[in-house]
Design a protein that fits this description.
The protein is an alpha/beta fold. The chain has helices at 13-22, 31-44, 55-65, 82-89, 112-115, 135-145, 199-206, 212-216, 236-246, 249-266, 268-272, 299-310, 327-332, 342-346, 360-373; strands at 48-52, 73-77, 94-98, 120-126, 148-152, 160-161, 164-165, 172-176, 189-193, 285-286, 292-295, 333-335, 349-352. It starts with 12 loop residues before the first helix and ends with a helix.
């Protein structure tokens, strides 16, 4: 069976986990947590990076830092994972979904302004497949209306927009290091804080509402409970696993990019004949090969393709059911404007196996099977 995803493993993970155990500091904010955070701050030119227990809790922290009140509105795409929405619905915000662009599957920046009301407080963008949203336009709209911007860059580690790392453009950025992501710590994430004004409170929220981080730095003589918070700090064992991959971040990225390009080259003829559509990378965007997808003619064809591949021991999968059509989406939000592309495009999309270490032989099997399906 050719799996859809294989979690990355570079070889030093167990060694570093052993070092973390030997240090007798495994609860977090030890040497590996600091290495990971400092590496990302330097590599991505981020003001402050804090590791979290997941990409979801990174979004939760960003939501808390926005100080939303019940009834406040948050604009976001419907084509995203539930975590993007839960982070705000959890605190009583109303979700306002807008349509996506069919070329990138990202939020349509031209639809955002019409969805803004007097209750709007935040715009959330999700960089699908590690391809950036049109951030110049989105940031201009946000500043014009006095709104905060959160980048759900769960899929965007090592990707950029006009030279800026995804996650560093809005007020807050959120990474995921889930086992399905390009870099993994099993379950984990990070919040990127792009304004110094939010750093102190972010550290307090992450440490269960205490000022323990300041205590460890010697800034206070004792720590105490000073605000709301939660246990957002991941284990040092998880950070040790991640560090083994960040050390080889470029190797992992380049390996995935080679596989992505082989898919694109292999299916160029099918696309030229109008049988499938391929991913689009707009000018100014540098992607990270988080995924490679094809767009079929319609839902029926996609279902048949997935089954065809499964019968040949190849696991290909569809992606999100649009949130605005889900039971919780109907309960906690509304769709602003016309759903012209969100549902129709999501019905056509199928993701092919892509992961660090995917062999040429296995990729050739996938390519041959897809071509056979289309009679190429």
């Amino acid at each position: 069976m050719i799996c859809f995803n294989v979690p990355p493993c570079t070889g030093n993970e167990m060694k570093y986990i052993g070092e973390a155990v030997a240090s007798r500091k495994i609860c977090g904010d030890g040497q590996f947590t600091k290495r990971c955070s400092e590496w990302m701050e330097k590599r991505f030119d981020a003001h402050k990076v804090l590791l979290t227990t997941s990409g979801t809790t990174a979004l939760d922290m960003a939501s808390l830092l926005c100080e939303l009140q019940p009834g406040d509105e948050v604009i976001l795409p419907s084509f995203t994972f539930s975590s993007t929405a839960n982070a705000f619905a959890n605190y009583g915000a109303r979700l306002v979904f807008v349509d996506i662009r069919p070329d990138t599957m990202n939020i349509d920046e031209t639809k955002i302004e019409a969805a803004i009301t007097s209750r709007t407080k935040v715009i959330v963008v999700m960089h699908y497949a590690g391809v950036a949203c049109e951030m110049d336009t989105i940031m201009a709209i946000a500043r014009k209306h006095g709104l905060l911007v959160i980048e759900d860059a769960a899929q965007g580690v090592m990707a950029s927009y006009k030279g800026k790392a995804l996650g560093t453009i809005g007020d807050f950025g959120c990474f995921s290091f889930h086992e399905t992501k390009n870099y993994s710590m099993g379950e984990g994430g990070a919040i990127l804080i792009n304004s110094p004004a939010y750093v102190d409170r972010a550290e307090i929220l992450r440490e269960k509402g205490t000022n323990r981080t300041r205590f460890y730095r010697g800034q206070v003589d004792k720590y105490t409970w000073v605000d709301i918070g939660d246990s957002f700090l991941p284990s040092e064992l998880n950070a040790a696993y991640l560090w083994a991959q960040l050390e080889l971040a470029d190797e992992i990225n380049n390996d995935r990019l080679r596989s992505w390009q082989r898919y694109k080259d292999a299916f160029a003829e099918l696309a030229a004949r109008g049988r499938v559509e391929l991913p689009v990378i707009p000018e100014g965007c540098v992607h990270n090969a988080h995924m490679f997808y094809l767009k079929c003619r319609d839902l029926s064809e996609r279902t048949a393709l997935i089954q065809f591949l499964k019968e040949r021991d190849i696991l290909a999968v569809f992606h999100y059911v649009p949130l605005h059509s889900a039971p919780a989406g109907l309960r906690f939000g509304r769709f602003a404007g016309e759903d012209r592309y969100t549902t129709a495009e999501s019905d056509r999309l199928v993701r092919l196996p892509l992961y660090y270490g995917l062999t040429k032989e296995d990729q050739d099997r996938v390519i041959t099977a897809v071509r056979d399906f289309y009679g190429a």
